[in-house]
Amino acid sequence: MTVAAVIVAGGSGLRAGGETPKQYQTIGGRPVLWWTLKAFAEHPGIARVQTVIGEGHEAMFAAATEGLTVEPAVTGGATRQDSCRAGLEAVARHQPEKVLIHDAARPFASRDLISHVIAWLDRHRAVVPGLPVAETLKLAPGGIVTATVDRSGLWTAQTPQGFGFEAILTAHRAAHAAGVTNLTDDAAVAERLGIEIAMIPGRVENRKLTTAEDIETADRAMMAARLDHLPDIRVGQGIDVHPFAEGNGVTLCGVSIPHDRSLAGHSDADVAMHALTDAIFGAIGDGDIGVHFPPTDRRWKGAASAIFLAKAVELVHRRSGLIANADLTILAEAPRIAPHIAAMKAVLAPLLGIAAERIAIKATTAEKLGAIGRGEGIVAFATAMVRLP
């Protein structure tokens, strides 16, 4: 039996906060989508994994699939239903017998759950995992209770939902042809065509990440589990300073900030990212930026400092380690840095492989004292904690 998986990852995820869709936000050092895809790509019963992404998400998807074997993504539609149909149409050329359809924002689908859904497809054309409703239900339009709803026989539906491939593809095509576009899951699409659906026990941990709090909770739990196996705690520090030169802006932590001058340096002179890079090199005892990227090497003339930081993180990963957190202090009289801190964290988080809440960036002045106080340049201090086996 050939089984394919369609992972629906086209949503904007606005309720999770920030400018990055929730499926690309970081938990446990990786994007949510990476963990979701990993569960299916490494399952022995899944032959291929097809992802459906949102328009303009190509670069984020490429970063989120590092090290995984999955099909090239296809672009979804305006609704989840449209996106599911696009994924099914992309898989159709491979002629699978069965298909599992799963939400990208459910990264905790276990191998056991996936196996159970596949196994139940031997007996049913459609299988949906879920949990029986345990709480008392109230009907309260406008916030006023008008009735208590009998919860017996009620379930909350999860994914992955499993189907005979031709049956669910036919059901999706029929709904689309009829102009029905507001069905919220694939089981509803199957119901519309009269397909019998088996309900099986899901898993409590197979929750859908929806809010910013969900993302933070998932990150804490997953990082705690990963760090528990990395007992060697290393701390490194980095300091860098660059003078001002003629120009019209500075780059700090990868963010361009307008200013009446620029920072002088062989690369893009990102003093903050340089300090952080040196802190990571220091934590693993592996030299500094000058050792790995000599200023005498013309390859690094004007280079983006993200290249340097990515190298430091790569060396940590080669040692099977993780970055646990980073702390930066930027000392400058001008420009104003505080308004750009959120953007800086958004740049650093995917580079470091940690959530933004594990990054601290502070800005202060030298109170007019010394060279920095006279506005002659900017200095940055950084510490980084690394966990190794």
List keywords for this structure.
single chain, alpha/beta, Spore Coat Polysaccharide Biosynthesis Protein SpsA, Chain A, 60s Ribosomal Protein L30, Chain: A, five-stranded mixed beta sheet, 12 helices, 19 strands
Question: Any chance you could write out the topology, listing elements then pairs?
Answer:
Blueprint: E1 3-9, E2 26-27, E3 30-31, H1 32-41, E4 48-53, H2 58-64, E5 74-75, H3 80-92, E6 98-103, H4 111-120, E7 126-132, E8 137-139, E9 147-149, E10 155-157, E11 161-164, H5 165-177, H6 186-192, E12 198-201, H7 212-227, E13 232-246, E14 249-252, E15 255-258, E16 261-263, H8 271-283, H9 289-292, H10 306-318, E17 322-331, H11 341-352, E18 359-364, H12 370-373, E19 377-388
Parallel strand pairs: 1-4, 1-6, 4-5, 7-12, 17-18
Antiparallel strand pairs: 2-3, 6-11, 7-10, 7-11, 8-9, 13-16, 13-19, 14-15, 17-19
Helix pairs in contact: 3-5, 5-6, 8-10
The rough form would be described as: elongated
CATH architecture of the largest domain: Alpha-Beta Complex
Mean pLDDT: 94
- Detail the poorly predicted runs: none
Question: What is the CATH superfamily label of the largest domain?
Answer: Spore Coat Polysaccharide Biosynthesis Protein SpsA, Chain A
Can you describe what's shown?
With 389 residues, this protein is α/β, with parallel strands linked by helices. The chain folds into 2 domains: 3-225, Spore Coat Polysaccharide Biosynthesis Protein SpsA, Chain A, CATH 3.90.550; 230-388, 60s Ribosomal Protein L30, Chain: A. 31% of the residues lie in helices and 26% in strands. Strands 1, 4, 5, 6, 7, 10, 11 and 12 form an 8-stranded mixed sheet that branches. It has a 5-stranded mixed sheet with strand order 16-13-19-17-18. A two-stranded antiparallel sheet has the order 2-3. The chain starts with a strand and ends with a strand. The mean pLDDT is 94.
